[in-house]
Design brief:
Strand content: over 45%
Distance between the termini: 28 Å
Number of helices: 1
Number of strands: 9
Helix content: under 10%
Structural class: mainly beta
Amino acid sequence: MTHHEQLTPTAEERAAARGNRDVGTRLLFENDAVRVWEVRLASGERAPLHCHALDYFWTCVEAGTAGQITMNGSDWQRTRVDYTVGDTRFFHHGQGTRTIHDLHNIGDTTLRFITVELLGTAHQGTDGPL
């Protein structure tokens, strides 16, 4: 397998994903309002499946290419995205919604984001079965 191929999560990782709320590789800051994470993946590195149940946004600060596996209903969807510096996206989690995904750097450069979770935005029903 080359580092450009996307890995498939194990059954154990899928089972633990709902409880994994570490949405970055390093926690930079936290107060009553926000939690700020760095996501830094060298070429070939993969962040495991994790669960977003809070509203959040990320900004790309080092460009690269990622593969991602995301839960879509009861199915897993694979995507490939080329990120550029400054790309920013906001995610709102309504009543009972969450996002479960991984992130795999399938490019040749380090890929890095800053992710900000908005604390106090957790919604009811986010702990249902996968």
